[in-house]
Prior knowledge:
Two copies of one chain form a homodimer. The first copy, chain A, is an alpha/beta fold. The first copy, chain A, has helices at 13-16, 24-34, 49-62, 80-88, 96-108, 115-118, 152-162, 183-196, 224-238, and strands spanning 6-11, 39-45, 65-69, 92-94, 122-124, 128-130, 139-142, 145-148, 173-179, 201-209, 212-221. Chain A is built from nine helices and eleven strands. At the A-B interface, helix 1, helix 2, strand 2, helix 6 and helix 8 of A face helix 1, helix 2, strand 2, helix 6 and helix 8 of B.
Amino acid sequence: MANPRAAMLVIGDEILSGRTRDTNMHYLAGELSRIGIPLAEARFVADDHAAIVAAIQALAGAYDHLFTSGGIGPTHDDITADAVAAAFGVPIGHRADAMALLAAHYDRRGMEFNEARQRMARIPGDAALIDNPISIAPGFTLRNVHVMAGVPNIFQAMVASVLPTLTGGAPLLSQSLRVDRGEGEIAQPFGALAAAYPDLSMGSYPFIQNGAYGTNLVIRGTDGARLDEAMLKLTRLFG
Amino acid sequence: MANPRAAMLVIGDEILSGRTRDTNMHYLAGELSRIGIPLAEARFVADDHAAIVAAIQALAGAYDHLFTSGGIGPTHDDITADAVAAAFGVPIGHRADAMALLAAHYDRRGMEFNEARQRMARIPGDAALIDNPISIAPGFTLRNVHVMAGVPNIFQAMVASVLPTLTGGAPLLSQSLRVDRGEGEIAQPFGALAAAYPDLSMGSYPFIQNGAYGTNLVIRGTDGARLDEAMLKLTRLFG
């Protein structure tokens, strides 16, 4: 059975402007590989309603799961929840369960549960809340879309809340061999090996170190025995 | 006049699998902001012909410029040039100018200019070559698509070759203010300020440091005087 496939949508002007370096995609990619729901595509869009809606519709339609990051805070540029509602044509409003969570949180801290903070309780349709143990304001899952915060430690906590609820596939295994030769030297035999193992994915990643060319050869797949077999041949070729 | 807008397409299994952390998008985003061609969208796809072709067509059609990274080396998983040719319906073959560059390079180094290395001279249609001072194998520009290598130092060298040939807009300026308050406290007045300056883009980026909430408030735009004026008001509100 083929593994389910995931996409990610990173939302925020600050990443596209070069101000902030995204770390959530790399983190999610690793976690998804482990549970066998490989990340097949990622998109980054600005804080723009139409762009977010279009990306959600395209990615939620094309993949088994869509994970989003960013745009669910209390400020005017946090527009992800509304975009998700618009993408699926479902209503959005302050949901009682999210309001209760946040009211209790601000009450404990002696802080005002003002209008801006109440904005974080706006949840589309009958979405399930995603637990946020760090700053309480929840993410949510609507159909196959998992909406999470952009702040990396909160994003990671939400990923930890969501992933155990998903049915994964066989974990994506990988093995690699580092060779002190340029890609041009290994390309022909490596390509022939890849052609002989169409069930595995083989990639070569060149680097330059101290002025010398080298290549990392990586084999990926879900069948450990096949991976071992191909790796043995690779080592005989270039080891 | 509105600034031209750019998109980026990052190609490669190694980034989506979580093995490698992309650095090219962050680099390009910063360079493009400086020359006033802001990055409006980025996509990451695997080494998959159909996915690359579809992304090139969508992004080259929607934006003034498309920059790609990855997939132009000598190995079997380097399929970007063919995808660009397919996306535009133009022929691709070993181009004499690229062959001459590479033949001279390998000759100087006393290395065989084998079939795999010749693969890097496959250039679609009448694309203009992009200079690669590091490893010689050129990138290319076909219409509004700039095709570059994935290895970061080569990518950066190619960006330096391409950007001076483009007609930029007004540089995107940004100023920021760090406040020791959570987003929920500043959201209302900050949103009102943003509404009063629709020509500027204002974003708030929360962080947690030593257990305390803080927020970076950022104002972006192309008109320095307007930016200064808004920044002064921001400082009066929260400084």
